[in-house]
Amino acid sequence: MNETDAERQDLLQRDVLLVVTAMLSLLNGMHFSPFFDPAFILLRPFAAGFFITSPLVLLYITSLFVSLATLVLGGIPAALYERLRGLPRSTPGSLGIWAGTVALLASPTLLGLGGLR
């Protein structure tokens, strides 16, 4: 395998891990997530301050908030790993840590979807 094939394989692994991370994060932000209702209750007073009166818009904002919170919290261990290893950019290993942490955060939602909760 030459150098360009190795680069392509590395890019493909990184892309797949990023898609999995985004998918799990979006799934965790859906209305059936156990984190959705507490976030909705906490965001409701702030929404009134920003003149968001539509309940539908508040539901979308809550979903976006939970998804982004999952991404950010899941990225902390991966960022620490990259910092401790002194990596100049993300590797498939660090993206795997990110995807695994997001999967761990999304596990209550996944278990609820499977009827195991």
Question: How would you describe this structure to a colleague?
Answer:
The radius of gyration is 17 Å and the shape is elongated. It starts with a helix and ends with a helix. The protein is an all-alpha fold. The protein has one domain. It contains 5 helices and no strands.
The proportion of strand residues reads: under 5%
Which structural class fits the helix and strand makeup?
Answer: mainly alpha
What characteristic shape results from the CA principal axes? elongated
- The count of domains is 1
Describe the largest sheet: none
**What is the terminal separation in angstroms?**
46 Å
Total strand segments: 0
How would the blueprint of this fold be written?
Elements (H helix, E strand, L loop, with lengths): L2 H26 L7 H14 L5 H31 L6 H14 L1 H7 L4
Concise overview:
The chain is built from five helices and no strands. The protein has 117 residues and is mainly alpha-helical. The chain has one domain (3-113).
